[in-house]
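Re: folding output
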Amino acid sequence: LDLEIDVNKDDASYYKEISKRVNKIDPDDRNTDLFIPLGIFIGEKIKRGTSAHWQVEKKYGYRPYFMPILIDASEKKYHPWYKLYEHLSKKKFDFDKYLTLVNSLGAL
């Protein structure tokens, strides 16, 4: 994104700048380029704001796989990648709106 990434910045102008930079990237390329790093960044912001810690959760399907999640002291789970693919695929991505969504959901 050619932007200094700082998990300690919480101001609206910083979130708007992230959204602006993400929206410059073609929606078809956003998931390939940004899905993993943006999910980690969002997870670190959640971690800082909730005193949660990273943990790996085993998921079952055709083949079992592991998914990184955050868990706080009260066992509330946060999934930084929850519907991130869907949000990045939209014509206009709003970082602040997505972060608010993930923070409010928890325990999915």
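--- second protein (sequence, then structure) ---
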Amino acid sequence: MTFGGVLLRAIVVIAMGLILGPIVIVLVLSFSSGNSLSFPPPGLSLQWFVEFFHAGQMRDAFLLSIGLAFAAACGSTLVGLLTALYTTRRRGIVGSILQTLAMAPLVFPALILGLALLLLYRTINMPVLPGLFVAHVVVCLPYAFRAVLTSLQSFDTRYEEAAHSLGAGPVRAFIRVTLPIIWPGVLSGWLFAFVVSFGELNTALFLTGPGVTTLPIEIFSYLQFQGNQLVVAAASALQVGVILLLLLAAERVIGARRIVSR
């Protein structure tokens, strides 16, 4: 093996260690039988998961985060799909503006976006939960849009033209011809949007209210003001578990290679 190959493998191993190492440590600590953060743990136990589900605020925040992430992923994927369809079928200044707007949340700092939405919501008296949903859709939109756009750019429009020539209208041609071909990209966009929404903290910090707190914000508050950090480790492990289940399900449906290639 050449020196370049050895160096490349070493860099990959170091990068994977830096990425996966902290996650593995948190997962192991979530099963600790001790009462404080210590690695390796003195033993294994499920007590911190039990305490997590007994903590009403944590449990409610977890359920809210799952529901909000599901709804935000569906909303952002729908908006991303419609925007991607327009930008690929009608090129021009309007399409370019829409594409720029769809990707804009990646450019603006999340704190500034959250503050701007907070000022807007106070002006129009937006309720907390719908406002949080809209904010998550905005934050997730670039990820859903980009995945769908990549699929549409590789789609051969002659299939739709053939469907039109056989008497299918635009909606029927899209549902029966286009969507079955591009659906791996749509599912990938939905998956990325769900993961982003499930872990969103910065924008949501400005927009939550009493009784409407997502799990990342509850974890942040718990670390600052409340009890045992091992409960936070259990909450983080549950987050990782939900995401891994989604990834495994998506891998079974469309394959991991098609997910990461979007």
